[in-house]
Task: inverse folding
């Protein structure tokens, strides 16, 4: 039932109740008043005529009639009778009702043992109610008999009816008034609400660090539909992912193709060390691989990688657990320069991120990119052990590999996930090899992106640059006999994070981190964790700290922001320049606000292993993720996972995919330095109760929408696609089979 209608019904019910109770109370009171009035009047008239009555009492009817007629002159007196002490009727006026004879009245008085003078009662006659009183007539103090007076009460009933009608009218008028006022108030509230909504949609509300309404709506829709679907299968964890593989894909091994390997062996003066690279892709996929087993095909980039792998480049990982293998592919320096630094990171990376860096496209880089994609595609085909394997191709390093693999393994299920944003078709059009890139990706069974917006951009690019049919209803691209689905799969992290198992408590982390940074135990701490990349908005982040200290003086000398920055892609000039700029900026801000030992910014430029990173997350009052453009950003989700104390505030750029999932973060525009500074101040002032409310809600979100669900949903979609393709008979077509066997 609509809210307004419910409210109106309640209001009317309340009014009716008040009117009813009022009516009963009013009639009872007026009754009492009238009765005592009639009683007084009866006594008065009989007392006034007492002398005359007493004088003529002995003469009976002749003597008494005149006096009785006198009394009935009062228009409300229906009739009067005179009774002797033993109940004889001495005289009565003509209209005196026979029902109330002298004997009957005296019997009633005796029965009630009433002494009162007058004795009164109210009785019902067929024509209406009457009031009967018996007043004693006396001479020289001795009672002679009684005079009975019958008053007509019909006028009282008339008055009651008038009162009832008046109350009914009042009830209707009040109800109408209340309903009108409610509707007007509701209308006004609706207007205020719609103008708020309009304001929110136009983006004005982000000044208050609110999430975009569209994101909340999309999130609510997703949560509702997912919850229904998922409720049946229980929470997503490694076991459920494994059983999904068994049930839907007959327990096949999964082959991952990704440029970055999850374990890098590096030579150090003290021997070989295993490094976990700073990469969102690795953070997400490594737990999936541990759950599923299989092979991860990657570039062997560590200085001790060759010596720790076998002759074909295989190494069992994770160290000590050895649940899956890495197949390392070796690249020459020229190949790495052209494919990785050149085309991938100077071309595609700035092309896809709106971070104001110009993409550079060199023909020789492209040639390397094509050759290296083929090299990796071949390595994948060497690793498969069936004609229709499941292959997960990762990211912008391998846009061409899906088609290359498809040519050799037509029955393979190829899921390609693009971990970075996919920009507008206009922007993609800048790339001289845009058709080849899109066509390469369309070799996949499913192409996945973090958000629906990126999916739509991809479909637009296909529409603009390719010959194909777009099935908009199914979000699929049809080329000849092949279909590629385009789907959003927002990536996440493992839950619970295994690194947390070995970590000290939050108070211990707070104490140890403050100690190693040379801060007092009660210092306020902010943290930023990134690769040193221009898309992460690290300069804007430090400038926002500067704003915080200039606009909110109470945090000077108390607040320190520690930035853990892992050097990245340092062969590229733009990354080296960024490194220098960030260092200069930190020095400048420290010179402005530093005093004695106090420095507001601590820059730790080095690779930090996950246990250190998680210790810092747990030690901080706030974490600021300020990406200028980011497909998802898993640092935001890791911070949430690290805070099992449910405290700490996440300040999050609106230009990350994560801002769509973590709507309880303080959402900011990282370019608006004042807003970001204010958000950090709000975070530092936030009550523990509010921190808990926000953090627990985000923790629920990340725990439910974890990386096992991400992988599980992709695999289930892939299995469905395989089933449909089998049913349609395309997979068993002789030509296709012959091609597969021939390869
Ligand atoms: C982003 C990319 C990943 C990449 C990571 C680290 O998250 O999407 O593919 O692995 O950055 O970059 P790197 O170049 O060091 O692998």
Result:
């Amino acid at each position: 039932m609509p809210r307004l209608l419910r409210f109106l019904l309640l209001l009317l019910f309340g009014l009716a109740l008040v009117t009813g109770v009022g009516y009963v109370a009013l009639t009872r009171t007026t009754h009492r008043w009238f009765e005592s009035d009639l009683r007084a009047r009866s006594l008065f008239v009989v007392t006034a005529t007492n002398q005359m009555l007493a004088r003529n009492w002995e003469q009976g009817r002749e003597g008494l009639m005149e006096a009785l007629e006198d009394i009935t002159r009062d228009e409300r007196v229906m009739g009067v009778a005179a009774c002797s002490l033993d109940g004889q009727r001495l005289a009565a006026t003509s209209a005196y009702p026979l029902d109330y004879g002298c004997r009957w009245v005296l019997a009633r008085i005796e029965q009630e043992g009433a002494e009162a003078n007058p004795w009164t009662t109210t009785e019902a006659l067929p024509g209406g109610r009457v009031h009967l009183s018996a007043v004693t007539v006396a001479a020289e103090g001795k009672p002679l008999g009684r005079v009975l007076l019958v008053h007509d009460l019909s006028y009282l009933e008339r008055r009651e009816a008038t009162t009832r009608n008046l109350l009914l009218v009042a009830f209707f008028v009040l109800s109408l008034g209340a309903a009108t006022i409610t509707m007007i108030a509701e209308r006004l509230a609706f207007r205020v609400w719609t103008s708020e909504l309009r304001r929110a949609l136009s983006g004005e509300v982000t000044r208050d660090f609110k999430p975009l309404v569209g994101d909340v709506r999309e999130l609510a829709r997703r949560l509702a539909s997912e919850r229904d679907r998922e409720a049946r299968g229980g929470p997503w964890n490694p076991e459920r992912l494994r059983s999904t593989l068994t049930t839907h894909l007959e327990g096949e091994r999964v082959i991952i193709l990704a440029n970055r390997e999850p374990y890098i062996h590096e030579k150090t003066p003290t021997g070989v060390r295993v490094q976990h690279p700073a990469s969102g892709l690795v953070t997400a996929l490594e737990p999936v691989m541990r759950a599923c087993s299989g092979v991860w095909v990657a570039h062997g980039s560590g200085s001790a990688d060759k010596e720790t792998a076998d002759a074909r480049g295989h190494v069992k990982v994770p160290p000590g657990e050895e649940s899956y293998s890495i197949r390392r592919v070796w690249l020459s320096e020229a190949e790495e320069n052209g494919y990785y630094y050149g085309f991938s990171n100077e071309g595609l990376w700035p092309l896809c991120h709106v971070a104001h860096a110009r993409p550079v496209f060199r023909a020789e880089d492209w040639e390397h990119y094509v050759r290296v994609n083929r090299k990796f595609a071949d390595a994948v085909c060497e690793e498969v052990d069936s004609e229709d394997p499941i292959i997960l191709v990762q990211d912008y390093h391998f846009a061409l590999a899906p088609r290359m693999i498809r040519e050799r393994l037509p029955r393979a299920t190829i899921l390609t996930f693009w971990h970075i944003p996919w920009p507008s078709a206009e922007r993609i059009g800048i790339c001289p090899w845009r058709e080849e890139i899109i066509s390469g990706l369309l070799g996949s069974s499913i192409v996945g992106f973090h958000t629906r917006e990126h999916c739509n951009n991809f479909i637009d690019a296909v529409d603009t640059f390719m010959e194909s049919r777009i099935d908009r209803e199914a979000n699929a691209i049809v080329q000849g006999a092949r279909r590629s689905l385009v789907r959003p799969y927002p990536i996440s992290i493992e839950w619970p994070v295994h690194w947390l198992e070995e970590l000290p408590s939050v108070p211990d982390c707070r104490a140890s981190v403050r100690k190693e940074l040379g801060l007092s135990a009660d210092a306020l701490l902010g943290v930023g964790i990134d690769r040193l990349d221009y898309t992460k908005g690290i300069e804007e982040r430090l400038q926002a700290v500067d704003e915080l200290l200039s606009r909110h003086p109470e945090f000077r000398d108390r607040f320190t922001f520690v930035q853990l920055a892992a050097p990245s892609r340092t062969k590229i000039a733009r990354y080296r320049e960024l490194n220098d700029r960030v260092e200069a900026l930190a020095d400048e801000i420290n010179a402005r606000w530093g005093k004695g030992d106090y420095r507001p910014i601590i820059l730790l430029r080095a690779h930090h292993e996950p246990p250190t990173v998680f210790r810092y997350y747990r030690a901080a009052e706030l974490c600021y993720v300020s990406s200028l453009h980011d497909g998802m950003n898993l640092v935001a989700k890791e911070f949430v996972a690290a805070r099992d104390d449910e405290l700490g505030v996440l300040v999050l750029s609106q230009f990350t995919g994560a801002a769509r999932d973590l709507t309880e973060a303080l959402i900011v525009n990282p370019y608006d330095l004042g807003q970001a500074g204010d958000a950090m101040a709000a975070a530092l002032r936030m009550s523990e109760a509010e921190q808990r409310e926000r953090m627990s809600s985000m923790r629920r979100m990340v725990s439910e929408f974890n990386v096992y669900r991400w992988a599980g949903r992709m695999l289930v979609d892939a299995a469905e696609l395989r089933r449909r393709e089998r049913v349609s008979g395309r997979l068993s077509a002789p030509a296709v089979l012959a091609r597969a066997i021939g390869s």
User: Anything to note?
Assistant: The chain has three domains: 2-158, 241-422, 503-705.
